[in-house]
Write a structure and sequence with these properties.
Length: 386
């Protein structure tokens, strides 16, 4: 009996140690001949056009810079399907099954936020190209971004409305199912009230959901309030439809938006109705900033035979920031990559110089663009201190 108990005890201890060893091993970095970078983007669903633009940038960067530390870089693509639940599943697949060393993505702040706890718990760094909501990186040591954030973007557009357009009253039309749209609308609203000194400067605030097609009720209410400007940041499809329907209802005031409008679909859907609309974004092909800007533009035009979107330049930069961190760390250990990404300072990317601040956000200029003759056209550059 004593022997039997002793044997059971040995087996139990052995099993416990084996499980502990496996658990510990899963958290340790294991050297490989290939370095994997996960690409976490919406390739289907409402945000697919934005995801496609970012995928283009990553593929181009990988074509130009296919190795680091003498090892091949393998891109592992996963579709978050423009859905927060699917986004969490996609991120988990990258860190648990694919064992990627770092992650790029996602277009859409909500998609990025859904992956936040997953990358943090797995200790795998993620770099968002264009996710601007502050909550993407807040309290998360493993999530970074190479774009500016919405408090800055919202303030830029509020200043444009108040100072350039001389607006006194603004109507808001937000995509309530989008963390991005709700966040930037609030930052715009707060800044515009401060600039005008009028707590009642927002005369209407209406909402819609992703996928809605008819905005007649919201626009009719807005028209009755007689605003000087409408601020309607949201997805490119709904944004273009809003502008078309506004013009059909006889609303002629300027309509402003954010970086999510900069897709070919916005122009295709909006057509002549979107002429003259102004929005904030990250990069203008007319004003290359660094030598890498020129390298990117030349390579992109040759590869895709078109002009790049700003988010494409940013996803290209996200890739470069990661491989630069790997070089400086002299390791593909995700934790060491994370530590070096956090130290990034004045890195010359395609969309400008990148410095990561103490909150894992990039300090960057904003670019204003206007739709002119059916094209996105550079209007102005706004620096953070302005």
């Amino acid at each position: 009996m004593r022997k039997k108990i002793s044997l059971l005890l040995v087996l139990a201890v052995s099993t416990s140690l084996t499980l502990a060893g496996c658990k510990q091993k899963s958290k340790e970095y294991v050297e490989s001949d290939v370095i994997k970078i996960g690409v976490f983007e919406p390739m289907t669903g409402a945000n697919a056009a934005g995801g496609e633009l970012e995928v283009e940038g990553v593929k181009l960067a990988n074509k130009l810079y296919p190795t680091v530390l003498g090892k091949k870089i393998e891109l592992v693509f996963t579709d978050n399907k423009s859905d927060k639940v699917e986004a969490a599943t996609a991120a988990a697949n990258l860190v648990e099954k694919e064992k990627v060393n770092a992650i790029i993505g996602s277009w859409g702040s909500g998609n990025s936020m859904a992956a936040g706890d997953i990358v943090m718990d797995a200790k795998v760094p993620a770099v968002a190209a264009s996710a601007t909501n502050p909550l993407v990186t807040a309290g998360n040591d493993y999530y970074f971004r190479v774009c500016f954030i919405d408090p800055f973007q919202g303030t830029v557009m509020a200043k444009y409305a108040a100072n350039t357009l001389k607006a006194k009253k603004v109507a808001l039309l937000q995509e309530v199912s989008s963390d991005y749209s709700v966040g930037i609308s609030k930052f715009f609203s707060d800044a515009f009230k401060d600039l005008t000194g009028d707590k009642d400067a927002i005369v209407a605030k209406s909402s819609y959901n992703t996928g809605d097609q008819d905005f007649t009720a919201q626009l009719t209410n807005i028209k009755m309030q007689n605003p000087d400007v409408i601020f309607a940041p949201g997805n490119f499809t709904e944004g273009a439809l809003i502008i078309k329907q506004a013009r059909q209802l006889g609303i002629t005031v300027p309509i402003l938006g954010g970086d999510t409008w900069e897709t070919p679909e916005f122009l295709e859907i909006g057509q002549k109705a979107v002429e003259g609309t102004v929005f904030s974004t990250f990069f203008a092909t007319e004003t290359p900033i660094t030598e890498e800007s020129k390298t990117f533009l030349d390579a992109y035009r040759k590869e895709y035979n078109k002009e790049p979107a700003a988010v494409t330049a940013l996803s290209y930069d996200a890739y470069l920031v990661i491989i630069n961190a790997i070089e400086r760390a002299n390791s593909a250990d995700p934790v060491k990559i994370r530590d070096e990404i956090a130290k990034t300072a004045k890195f010359p990317g395609a969309a400008g110089y990148i410095t990561i601040d103490e909150n894992n956000n990039a300090v960057k200029d904003a670019v204003l663009k206007v739709v002119k003759d059916g094209k996105f056209t550079y209007l102005d550059t706004i620096k953070p201190e302005e």
